[in-house]
Amino acid sequence: xxxxxxxxxxxxxxxxxxxxxxxxxxxxxxxxxxxxxxxxxxxxxxxxxxxxxxxxxxxxxxxxxxxxxxxxxxxxxxxxxxxxxxxxxxxxxxxxxxxxxxxxxxxxxxxxxxxxxxxxxxxxxxxxxxxxxxxxxxxxxxxxxxxxxxxxxxxxxxxxxxxxxxxxxxxxxxxxxxxxxxxxxxxxxxxxxxxxxxxxxxxxxxxxxxxxxxxxxxxxxxx
Length: 223
Description:
It is a single chain. With 223 residues, this protein is an alpha+beta fold. The protein has a domain at 42-93 and 114-144 and 166-176 and 204-222: 2-Layer Sandwich (Chloramphenicol Acetyltransferase), CATH 3.30.559.30. Helix content is 29%, strand content 25%. It has 5 helices and 10 strands. It has helices at residues 4-14, 50-62, 67-82, 126-142, 148-154; strands at 40-42, 46-47, 88-95, 112-119, 167-173, 180-183, 186-189, 196-198, 205-212, 215-222. Strand 9 and strand 10 (215-222) form a beta hairpin.
């Protein structure tokens, strides 16, 4: 497969971006100047009521965008607000990476982490932001097969210095019958994580939208 076109695409997407610039997020304590971490993490979960969940899905349907694209646009607006107007936003998103039809039914882990960068205009309306994110998402999808390590290498950036990997967005659709699973006599049940737990991850803000039986749940995970 000729990767030249995709290589050019990713270089143009990330041209001029300061990979060492971290999002200026509000914290309740001073950030460590070193990369040494305690291994502790915390989780916060926000559940939306049926009215908000329905409005979210209705907006996506009316504007012909996917729930992922609408959730991502909402996340960008959230980051723009809490970072006090930081407009050049680059975060990581997870992509299924099954870009060929023959990969659709193969068992295995194909998920790829990709940078999603937008240069947000503070004068945009929310509708304009959603439209921009939709166009960005579609263009990224076309080149999602290009590996992250190639993207970083083309920009002469190591993974340790790629600040966008610290902020992750994902969108999951969870069937209502996933709370209890039975397999060969074994029963699996969904459990909630404690407010804090030990993790080996670096500093990270993961924001996950879960859609379950038309109910939306937002789980931001500052790590």
